Amino acid sequence: MTCRCKSKFNAVFMKNLEWYIHKIYGKYKRELFNRSGNKVLEIGAGTGTNLPYYKKGIDLTIIEPSKDMLKYFLEKAGKHNLNIHVIEGFGEKIPFEEETFDTVVSTLVLCSVKEQEEVLKEIKRVLKTGGTFIFIEHVKAPEGSFTAKVQDVFHKGWKWIFEGCDIKRDTGSTIKRFFPEAQIKQIRFNSPFIPVNYHIIGYAVKK
Ligand SMILES: C[S@@+](CC[C@H](N)C(=O)[O-])C[C@H]1O[C@@H](n2cnc3c(N)ncnc32)[C@H](O)[C@@H]1O
Question: I need a labelling partner for 100 at 20 to 30 A (CA). Which of 5, 29, 43, 119 fits?
Fold first, then answer.
């Protein structure tokens, strides 16, 4: 029998962190989500922290592997005037045909997926030509910085506690390989969560 303790812990942790997530990412999300179309896919929607930022009335499909996260997501889903479809699954294998979505969203997910390149390949595949990929991700700190040293110390433990969350991924470079035209802002937050202070925030339009 497998223990769901860590999955439950992570869902409760994210749920309790929602106020803080809104506080630090809210203004960026309001700006970015304005770019979204009517048919949106969100990868790893977690407890549903992005729900308030979507345009009202749109079709939102989410793909999320954790039942524990989904429990909290579903509690909020009906309150936002969105047509929501929920899929329990992984971003590495998105069960839709190519060119299905106007927008794909990923926030704080590409750190945790097992196969980052596979997920990006899938995102690009299901996105319509002219569609937009929107992302906010924490990333590896610059070599030699204080945060890079902190990341070295916490890397393994963090990954273990937070179910595969890798604080040392150079996600911006990987996104650029799949979406060379991506507009990426690098932002350093001054949060108490030092290992995840460096972020990339941006979007890419599929050519
Ligand atoms: C840190 S949480 C972020 C949740 C939400 N996107 C947010 O911004 O609050 C990471 C989420 O990614 C999900 N996840 C992990 N691996 C995944 C995968 N391979 N495909 C899709 N989602 C995944 C986790 O279950 C979790 O809900």
Answer: 29
* CA dihedral angle for residue 79, residue 68, residue 159, residue 40, rounded to 10 degrees: -40
- Parse the chain into domains and list their residue ranges: 5-205
Pocket test for ligand 1, best of 6, 109, 122, 136 (most atoms within 8 A of CB): 109
Expressed in angstroms and rounded, the spacing between residue 43 Cα and the centre of ligand 1 is: 7
pLDDT in tens, the chain (207 residues): 567 899 999 999 999 999 999 999 999 999 999 999 999 999 999 999 999 999 999 999 999 999 999 999 999 999 999 999 999 999 999 999 999 999 999 999 999 999 999 999 999 999 999 999 999 999 999 999 999 999 999 999 999 999 999 999 999 999 999 999 999 999 999 989 999 999 999 999 999
Q: What is the pTM of this model?
A: 0.97
Question: 92-98: long-range contacts (C-beta < 8 A, 24 or more apart)?
Answer: 92/118, 92/119, 92/122, 93/118, 93/122, 94/41, 94/43, 94/63, 94/122, 94/123, 94/125, 94/126, 96/41, 96/61, 96/126, 97/126, 98/125, 98/126
